[in-house]
Amino acid sequence: MEAAESTAAPLGLGRGWKRGRLVVVALPLLVVFVALGSLGTVYYLRGFWLYRGFPPPHDPAFVVSRGTALQIEVPSAALGGRSQQVDVYLPPGYASHPRRRYPVLYLLHGFPGRPGAFLSTVKEGVNEDVLVALHRMQPLILVMPYGSTGTFTDKEWANGVRPKEAWETFVARDVVHAVDARFRTIRRGAGRAIGGLSEGGYGAINIALHHPREFRVVESWSGYERADPLVSIFGRGKGLLAWNSPLVRLPKVASVLRAQHTYMWFYVGSGDGGQMQVQNTAFATELAKYRIPHWFADIRGGHNWAVWRARGGSALLAAAGHLAHG
Questions:
Q1: Could you give the angle at which helices 246-259 and 199-210 cross, rounded to 10 degrees?
Q2: Structural domain contains residue 116
Q3: pTM summary value
């Protein structure tokens, strides 16, 4: 008669034997589970950073011609020779119409931020594909420069007091020249628009007022019109703050803006805060005083991606409708 298989613990291991076997089996499973969980967390956080809780953008089925996203590097003398990333979105039909020239919309990101948010979060590429497919707008080249040395480094899109920190010149000269040289653009002010969100909206207005012949359309999405008194950028004197405050600068360039038929399109949110609403309302009043064409709205909403995303298509229509055709 065969002896029954013993279920007793091996000599000397006692009751902990089965628990030990469970630990040996469970520990690798736990490691795998934690690793997968951590990986899932990384993907979730990356997805949230890219899309801010919105679904990834994609064209609807009826869109048969899509634009093309790419990145270029622009070496900048204004930044001491460093090369900066610039995201570009070529419109639907760009490759199939080799003789056509296109107007350009330059878009400046906020702080903290990076240029890719205009395509991934605001979904301006999808917006353009749809609006062009519906024949509601002429196609635009979208150009989105990276305006800092780091995601969490504030430069205000301004020519700062420190050497090699001429971010305004980087945009208005180096990026514009590089884009005109590389792509089939309309190479004059009537074919250029500049806009941005939050700090980028401030930067767009500020740059446009310093270069009033370079941009026909100027957009600000929840921006502001007085320079923040940041010593690291503007120093301690009042002169540079005044020079970089559109509310102060506007009267000095109003006649040029009017002669160039410059169009201003901007809004502020009801939740943006008292000072931002005061500044934007005052800027609209000044534009009306100097008879500069503009559209301004105090809209419902806060300083957030939901507001900018919801009005991304309207921003494209405003730019496309006031720029020269190729």
A1: 50
A2: yes
A3: 0.86
Half-sphere exposure of 306 (CA within 13 A, CB side): 7
The answer on 183 and 130 residing in a single domain is: yes
Tokens 């809004």 map to which residue?
Answer: 267
Q: In the predicted model, what is the mean pLDDT of residues 170-177?
A: 98
pLDDT in tens, 252-299: 999 999 999 999 999 999 999 889 999 999 999 999 999 999 999 999
Neighbour count for residue 76 (Cβ, 10 Å): 22
Q: Are strands 141-145 and 192-196 parallel, antiparallel or unpaired?
A: unpaired
What mean pLDDT comes out for the span 62-72? 98
Whether 165 is covered by a domain: the verdict is yes
High-pLDDT (> 70) share of the chain, %:
85
- Residue 186 falls within a domain, yes or no? yes
Q: What is the mean pLDDT of the chain?
A: 89
* Structural domain for 38, as ranges: 17-51
DSSP per-residue codes, 133-188: HTTSS---EEEEE--SSSTT---TTSB-SSTT-BHHHIIIIIIHHHHHHHS-B--S
Between CA 191 and CA 106, with CA 151 as vertex, the angle to 5 degrees is 5
Same domain membership, residue 99 and residue 26: no
